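Lab notebook: predicted structure, single chain.

Context: the supervisor wants predicted structures on file for every construct in the current expression panel, including those that have not yet been purified. This is the next one on the list. No modifications to the sequence; it matches the entry in the shared construct table.
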Amino acid sequence: MKVKLERDQSSELNCRKMENNRNKVLIVDDNESNVMVCQAILEKHYITETAQDGEEGLKKVKTFSPDIVLLDWDMPLKNGYEVLKGIKGNDDTRHIQVIMMTGMMTERDHMMKAYEAGVTDFIRKPFDVLELNARVNSVMRLVNFYKQQLDASNRELMSLSLQLAENTRLFDKMLGEISGMSGSLTDSEAKEKINSIQQSFRFRITESTWKQFEEHFLAVHPGYFSRLLDKHPDLTKAEIKLCALLSLNLDTKEIAAILTQEYDSVRVSRTRLRKKLSLENDEKLPNYLLKI
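Prediction complete. Output recorded below exactly as produced.
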């Protein structure tokens, strides 16, 4: 009985993992029959959600966080073009791919405006099953490719961060040995000189390692610091460093090692940063910073 229970639990856990790994599609269309057809086709392979007008669509983009939005052109409250601009004009959602569903009579100028606003692809209505699947699957392959590239780059950044932390630990050990040597000296000027060398050495190493990390970070996340300061212009240099490390989902102990700070000091800095960014209680700090 116990073995069966454990198997059931394991099976349920695996199902949850598979569900979490499935891509998501949001269907935004005021035509209920179109929505039902699209959902019936796509829910076999993707997690789907629907919205029946432009305003509801924009709200669900934020709460559902889809990989692709299948967006009708003609809708009440906000049309497809307005929804597209809302998605692409928001830093938190601009990465989402949008496929616009258009009628046969949609003007060429409108389609050009949509391309300029950031639409990924178009599909003409009425459409058939094969065309819809082909369009969505093609764009989803692009989505997953970018995700894999980003994951690989972030793993490389994390590896670099931990390497920098190890280098910092070794430098600290070296500085400790220098400090031990000064204990045997009687001349106060000599002790002062060694202490000065220690401080200068520590500063140069810290600045050098951070500069190396910053170059790699910006290669993976170009413009990140500019976007961060646009949203939060009052951040200090130390807080900017902390934001970059937190966006990689490093824990407090790892960050303390990289920044050569005490664990409690970093923990307090994280708490202060949350308040400064005015985050909701249920929003995770690394998740927020990663989306910038």
